[in-house]
Write a structure and sequence with these properties.
Length: 176
Amino acid sequence: MIRKATQDDIPAIAAIYERIHDREEAGAGATGWKRGVYPTEATARAALNAGDLFVDERGGRIAAAARINREQVPEYALARWQYAAPADKIMVLHTLTVDPDAAGQGVGTGFVAFYEQYARAHGCFCLRMDTNAINAPARALYKRLGYREADIVPCDFNGVGKIRLVCLEKRLEGEA
């Protein structure tokens, strides 16, 4: 069940971040994230305090978390988007994290479907998100779900230096 996160969810979300960092440091993943820099417990707390942190709870455990809002990061201004829209018609998915223990169970797909439904319910028809160019699993997932890579922007991002930020977009069908 995907729902708004609560204060009680923060330790579980931070633990997911740590498991992702552990896997990456062991060579079993490639998100491009950096332990102690991004994402951290403070990342989750900031999203919670803003009121736009969501979690996927399954069997009493948090399987995934993400921030959903209309805030486009400054780097998006550098991207060549195909789908133009007023800012109030654009919804953004930030920091989608799936617990490595739940990988391959459709958690990411379900969360993106929730994001699309949430955007539609809030009057947004243009969807945006990003990932690091080295995150091949995320890029493959988003492509399979109909997102197009609008651009790749070289930048320093979320405190992690020298990345290639893949900017992805999708236009909801049947919308203006």
